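step: validate -> pass
step: tokenize input -> pass
step: predict -> running
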Amino acid sequence: MILGSMVLAGGRSDRMGRSKPALPWGDGSLLLHTVQTLIECSHPVVVVARDDHQDLPPLHTECELIYDARPGEGPLQAIDAGLAFLERKCDAVFVAGCDLPFLDAVVIGRFFDLLGEQMGVVPTHDGEPQPLCAIYNLRVHSAVHELVQAGQRRAQALAELPGIKLLGPAELRAIDPALRFFRDVDTPDDYEAARKTAGLT
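step: predict -> pass
step: emit ->
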């Protein structure tokens, strides 16, 4: 089974107040850091941008860049676009937001091991599914497309599909004791706290 991945980079970053993909991280941007992590454990890696006018930081030469056919229609639409691009290129896909500074290739590999014949493996945090830091079988595409055509926009709808396994705290701690890999940065305070945790300040 071949694992690919996609990064959703088309959000408006309203709560951050500036572009999340372009936030400095290490020697590059947060988006580049995410892509480099995914390249360590998956192929192909595709970045789904809002449109060809979106100003993105430099990307890794080994990743693909596509554009959302219906920008502004929510993350589920962007996921549908990414899944359509990845059809016949891989068997499973790890879906990530561009704001996951502690994404870890080893943890992604553990998720891949857990997938088996299931439609997806989605972590939960405080009882809430985290569908933008999760792995899915490409067979989920038809169901995602139907949801989008029906007007669904919420990424959470992915976690409600039949055949999706939700991972609770005990299962997650067995994979990542610190529970850091799905920690995102939505606000300036989140970003500064993550930089402090990573020793970047």
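step: describe -> The radius of gyration is 16 Å.
step: cleanup -> pass
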